[in-house]
Amino acid sequence: MAETNIIGRSSHIRGRITGTADLEIAGLVEGTVEISGELVVAAEGRIAANLNARRLVVRGAVKGDLSATEAIVLEEGARVVGDVRAPRIAIAPGALLRGYVQTGQQAAAAPRAKAQPAAAAAPRTTNNVRPTAAAAPARPAPAASTAATARPAAAQAAAPSRSTPARTAPAPAPAPVSSNHTGPARTTSGNAGGGGAKAGPPAPTVPVLKKGARGTLQKRR
Amino acid sequence: MASTIIGAGITIEGEITTDDEVVVQGTVRGKLTAKDAVTIESGAVVEADIVGGPLAVAGSVTGNIHSSDRVDLQPGARVVGNVKATRITIADGAQFKGNVDMDV
After folding, report:
1. What does the pLDDT look like over B16-69, one tens digit per residue?
2. Nearest by CB to A13, which of B7, B9, B16?
3. Cα-Cα-Cα-Cα dihedral sign, residues A71, A142, A77, A28
4. Does B20 sit within 8 Å of A18, measured CB to CB?
């Protein structure tokens, strides 16, 4: 007990977790987690972060890229939206995953290069789209579908036209964690169109566009 | 046990908010907000403002402490920052630099 590190169920951590020990997360974590021990995401755990560990066991909800130097195990009840890279990966029946999967030795080398820039980008992104990012992993599929259905009504008026083609990308949900500038606009409008998510923080009330942008859009139409 | 334990070998940079009890043995930078007891154990390094319930410090804290209950600085504790609490004890052997506000 004394040697286990636990992020408790009602804990909320925003930022960066690093270390050499094992860690169990049963709370809400946003940012990045990089440890060289075993990382367990408990069934109650909700993560909006890129995870990097020696061994990764997931039973909860994760939105973000997962990489491990040894193995990743998605157990029953796991809900993962993001890329998964490790030398060995196990996905149990009952685990939900949407994202790119890569096993093998080159996968162990790849995350090092990939995780660093993503880790740097994550805190900035979570500041912008924090509620969305946290809400999405709980119900990834509905969020994606509402993003598609809400497009004609809410997004056309609200979103800048350059983000509209980006919206048709096949995987809308994984993008925001390590996304560029069009990411926040896309998710925010999608989530607002779909109404409040069941789990997690409430939908963001931050307007997608600056004041006056809507006016210029309407004028152009 | 539903508490949050940040063990030795773990570093958290950012904001921690919790309703649980918190035990820190590792390193925390940023902000630590708890509704329940907070324990900073010997060897822990906290460079953060701490808001919480009863607080026991045996490690190093740099930052302001605001407790709704009591603050105990145990032997070996090293605290730099202001402390606001209803009751404060400073044990022999604890280092402390800062203001104390006890709502007299």
Report:
1. 999 889 999 999 999 999 999 999 999 999 999 999 999 999 999 999 999 999
2. B16
3. positive
4. no
